[in-house]
Amino acid sequence: xxxxxxxxxxxxxxxxxxxxxxxxxxxxxxxxxxxxxxxxxxxxxxxxxxxxxxxxxxxxxxxxxxxxxxxxxxxxxxxxxxxxxxxxxxxxxxxxxxxxxxxxxxxxxxxxxxxxxxxxxxxxxxxxxxxxxxxxxxxxxxxxxxxxxxxxxxxxxxxxxxxxxxxxxxxxxxxxxxxxxxxxxxxxxxxxxxxxxxxxxxxxxxxxxxxxxxxxxxxxxxxxxxxxxx
Length: 230
Fold this sequence. Notes:
The strands form three sheets. This protein has a seven-stranded mixed β-sheet with strand order 6-5-4-3-2-1-16, covered by helices on one side. The chain has one domain (2-229): 4-Layer Sandwich (Metallo-beta-lactamase, Chain A). It has helices spanning 34-41, 54-57, 60-67, 75-84, 151-159, 176-186, 208-213; strands at 2-5, 11-15, 18-22, 46-48, 71-74, 89-92, 97-100, 103-109, 115-118, 121-124, 129-135, 138-142, 163-167, 191-195, 218-219, 227-229. A hairpin with a 2-residue loop joins strand 7 and strand 8 (103-109). The chain is α/β, with parallel strands linked by helices. The chain has seven helices and 16 strands.
């Protein structure tokens, strides 16, 4: 299994015949060149979306149409796009689990906001979420954009993820210190991968506070398009 950072909050998960793009922001992403964007989307089979803010959704509809692949996400937004955009979607909701080839994706809560721009102003896009992804004997927690929340208590106990992909850049999400606190209090990760950082000056530029706060846990600072193998 390979996890590949696409910069900011985006990842590419390769497992078996599945290539899952998670929150792919490929156009206008300061961390990703045009050539890298082409590599990032090559062979993608599905798109998984946590919420509809531009830095997560800007390329989703274009990719789905160009590659003829489905978008997976929270029911309300998937229903809207299915009706108005002519794309294939799989909509489900918190507490639900779906199978995608050999992996299983469970939707869990996040604590953020979830809107997107229209000609008539901002529109609410259902609710923001995270995911637990079971693949190749691992359970991956994709936090999406979130703060610390009490729901992490049961999520950690019930799903027991060993890999945490945590949005931890601060300002829009929990910061590195808060992410370390959440990981230590609510989870028993073997590996933690920070994201949603380094993109803009107002976000954290390194993960040292996360590393310092999680002794005994392997914190992997990802590099764009460099595969992390499990």
